[in-house]
TrEMBL record:
Annotated organism of origin: Sinosuthora webbiana
Coiled-coil features, chain-numbered ranges: none
Family the UniProt entry places it in: Belongs to the mitochondrion-specific ribosomal protein mL45 family.
Protein name: Large ribosomal subunit protein mL45
Keywords from the named record: Mitochondrion, Ribonucleoprotein, Ribosomal protein, Transit peptide
Lineage: Eukaryota, Metazoa, Chordata, Craniata, Vertebrata
Chief location of this protein within or outside the cell: mitochondrion
Subcellular localization(s) per the UniProt record: Mitochondrion
Gene behind this protein: Mrpl45
Length: 192
């Protein structure tokens, strides 16, 4: 990640009179200024038009892929950095996932544009805040439930980083990573 986004802790803001609150506001101001600058360059090249279409395609693909694994389709939706993290440890497991609804509309919270290796290689990264309701159940190779459940929906708050090679006019936004805040509650332990 070029400049990882630091999500503010919870919805409640710290008091601007305290040291931590002042530090949080200064950091937010810096991040929003850098995002505005990167957003200006992206809009001048007409690069942001496909973002909403890609988010819909991602949700549709993952929702339909409950019963099979399409390696080529997954490679087209995620970057080379993200692919091993997504498939590691899932070889003999069955994953049942359903997207139920968006509790809030996906919102862009962080935009970065930077050149890699030389000035001609421009990459753009967009961090999107997604608050949705989902169902996830993970079964081991013998069909025993390891994590989650198929009956209980959960509210999920995620910060997903999408990346695009900006030089290619036909390039698509792909998932590059996920930001897990320090204040996020720990995951449920896997039942063995």
């Amino acid at each position: 990640l070029m400049d990882p986004y630091v999500p503010p802790e919870g919805d409640a803001r710290l008091s601007s009179l305290s040291r931590d609150g002042l530090r949080q506001q200064v950091q937010k101001l810096r991040q929003s200024a850098a995002s505005q600058l990167a957003n200006f360059w992206g809009k001048s090249e007409n690069l942001w038009g496909e973002k909403q279409e890609f988010l819909g395609e991602k949700q549709e693909f993952v929702g339909k892929s409950r019963n099979y694994f399409n390696k080529q389709k997954l490679h087209s939706l995620v970057t080379e950095r993200c692919y091993p993290d997504m498939v590691r440890g899932n070889r003999y497991r069955t994953i049942r996932w359903r997207f139920l609804e968006s509790l809030e509309a996906p919102r862009v919270v962080h935009v970065r544009c930077d050149s890699v290796m030389n000035r001609g290689n421009l990459y753009g990264q967009v961090t999107v805040r997604m608050h949705s309701r989902q169902i996830l159940a993970i079964y081991d190779r013998f069909g025993r439930l390891m994590c989650g459940g198929e009956e209980v929906p959960r509210d999920v708050l995620e910060y997903i980083v999408f990346e695009r090679y900006l030089v290619n006019p036909f390039g698509t936004w792909r998932v590059h990573g996920k930001i897990v805040p320090e204040w996020a509650p720990p995951k449920d332990p896997i039942v063995k």
